[in-house]
Design brief:
CATH topology of the largest domain: Dna Topoisomerase Vi A Subunit, Chain: A, domain 2
Strand order of the largest sheet: 4-3-5-6
Largest sheet: 4 strands, parallel
Order of helices and strands: HHHEEHEHEHEHEH
CATH class of the largest domain: Alpha Beta
Number of strands: 6
Helix content: 40-55%
Number of helices: 8
């Protein structure tokens, strides 16, 4: 039995399709949208449609941009000899927040995940290999997540990049700042020991 008008049910259903949104959150969002005045609702809908029409992939790094080359690839201040490979544009934002990396990026738009039917051909791997093949790249940093899919993707890319004579590195992982050794799992401790450096 439907409790709401069909249009409201359809709106709730669309919000529920968003990642991380359950049915209660979807209802809350739908009711919020209904509470907006006509101008606010139109601006909200226009923002979605405009973003969908204008946001494209950078032809160089495959990051999201509003047309043409993204600001990072266009910047002459960035070191184009170092490419940091990330799975998702949000990962790039996280690295940029640290203000420590001055190279360029390459966004894969996912990771290899046989369980989810995502293979190498579904990712932006060919464009990465083409960038490296053009020359001028001395290091490729694998910055995928330290989970099964992220590790598998990093290993696959390292194998694919072997013929190009570039240094392939992986982000160091270990004990987080403020963490306690007694709570760390075996894999984290192993990574922390492998990634140790002189002080």
């Amino acid at each position: 039995m439907e409790y709401f008008p069909a249009a409201l049910e359809a709106l709730v259903e669309q919000f529920a399709r968003l990642p991380g949104i359950g049915s209660k959150s979807a209802q809350r969002l739908a009711f919020h949208v209904l509470s907006l005045d006509d101008d606010e609702a139109r601006r909200f809908a226009d923002a979605i449609v405009t973003a969908k029409k204008t946001v494209t992939l950078c032809p160089e790094c495959r990051n999201l941009t509003d047309g043409g080359v993204c600001p990072i690839c266009a910047s002459p201040k960035r070191d184009e000899s170092v490419i940091c490979v990330v799975a998702d544009p949000r990962d790039m934002v996280a690295i940029e927040r640290a203000r420590e990396f001055n190279g360029r990026y390459h966004v894969l738009h996912g990771v290899i995940s046989p369980m989810n039917h995502v293979g190498p051909d579904d990712l932006e791997i060919k464009s990465l290999l083409a960038r490296v093949a053009r020359g001028g790249v001395s290091e490729v940093i694998m910055a995928t997540n330290p989970d099964t899919e992220g590790e598998a993707t990093a290993m696959y890319l390292a194998r694919m990049l072997r013929p190009f004579d570039v240094r392939v590195t992986r982000l160091a992982y270990g004990i987080p700042v403020g963490g306690h050794l007694e709570f760390a799992d075996d894999a984290t401790l192993m990574r922390a020991l492998e990634g140790r450096r002189e002080i």
